[in-house]
Design goal:
Blueprint (H helix, E strand, L loop, with lengths): L1 H14 L13 E6 L11 H10 L2 E6 L6 H6 L5 H15 L3 E4 L15 E2 L2 E3 L3 E4 L5 E4 L9 H13 L1 H17 L7 H29 L4 E4 L6 E5 L2 E5 L8 E5 L5 E5 L13 H15 L1
Parallel strand pairs: 1-2, 2-3, 3-5, 7-8, 8-10
Antiparallel strand pairs: 1-11, 4-5, 6-7, 9-10, 11-12
The chain binds manganese (II) ion.
Length: 294
């Protein structure tokens, strides 16, 4: 049921025409949570994010880490105009009275040195506690403190999707070679599938660990990001919310004025010359939606 709600919320979010700047009018949401924008990388969907921010003004905006990708920028400078526009949009929101809170993540850990300070009206906090309109206390953290090997896990997940056929072919060649060397049959694809399952287990382990820590701290729920997988569900009586990312899934967590929370997914407006996505990203997003609806 929760999944269906988030799909409906996504449809409503998409119903607002892009470029229709509502920020000068009333806030649409009490709170918006976004994370993992990865500004400073070619993967960041900055144009879509700008559309989303324009169409979804809020009283409070939480930036839940990995906003600017310091790791990538150190390696290679990449800062197009659209990324600048996002930063300007966030600063403008703060100027117009939106409370903007930035909780740094691992890719922007340089900002952790500035916790307790404010930049252009944006508060920087190591972690935050958000009180919903219906009185629930949500712990707000990026989530990397619970980290293991997620980069590897993601890579394996893609491998499972895209290179399965290739793996099977490779498997045949490998075993022809093994047979020639007098070695027994060994299934490469079964081995890799096992690893993908490990990757999926990692996601679940992450979710359970974050929810358990929120509960231990006496909160009713938690909002995090980091693993680029939007989700909202109860785990042992604690509400686990992950606001997703703006690299692949283009998702946010929103709270309405009654305290109802939902995950919204940005849909590119159906117009010629709109946002072009590589096929792989489309597939990932479609998969996510199915998962959320399941
Ligand atoms: Mn992260």
């Amino acid at each position: 049921m929760k999944g269906l709600e988030s799909v409906l919320a996504a449809a409503r979010a998409a119903a607002v025409p892009a470029g229709d700047d509502l920020s000068s009018t009333r806030a649409r949401w009490r709170t918006v949570f976004i994370s993992d924008l990865h500004l400073g990388t070619p993967g960041c969907q900055a144009e879509a994010l700008l559309d989303f921010l324009k169409a979804n003004p809020s009283e409070q905006l939480f930036l839940v880490g990995d906003i600017v990708d310091g790791w990538q920028l150190r390696r290679r400078w990449y800062w197009p105009q659209a990324h600048n526009d996002v930063v300007q949009k966030l600063l403008r929101a703060a100027r117009k009275g939106c409370r903007v809170v930035f909780v740094p993540g691992n890719h922007d850990e340089f900002a952790r040195a500035f916790t307790g300070n404010a930049f252009g009206g944006i508060e920087v906090l190591e972690e935050a506690v958000h009180m919903t309109a219906d009185g629930r206390r949500l712990w707000v953290i990026h989530g990397d403190h619970f980290d293991g090997v997620i980069q590897c896990a993601k890579w394996l997940a893609y491998l499972g999707d895209n290179l399965y056929e290739f793996t099977l072919r490779l498997n045949r060649h490998l075993n022809t070679l093994r047979a020639r060397l007098g070695l027994p049959y060994w299934s490469l694809s079964a081995y890799l599938k096992g690893r993908v399952k490990t990757a999926l287990n990692y996601v679940t382990d992450f979710e359970v660990a974050v929810a358990a820590e929120a509960r231990r701290r006496g909160h009713q729920g938690v909002v995090c990001g980091h693993i680029h997988r939007a989700e909202m569900r109860e785990i042992d009586g604690t509400l686990y919310c992950n606001d997703g990312d703006w690299v692949e899934s283009m998702t946010a967590l929103v709270e309405d004025f009654q305290g109802r929370l939902s995950i919204v997914q940005w849909q590119p407006p159906p117009r010629a010359g709109g946002h072009r996505q590589p096929d792989r990203a489309q597939g990932v997003r479609a998969g996510r939606l199915e998962e959320m609806a399941a």
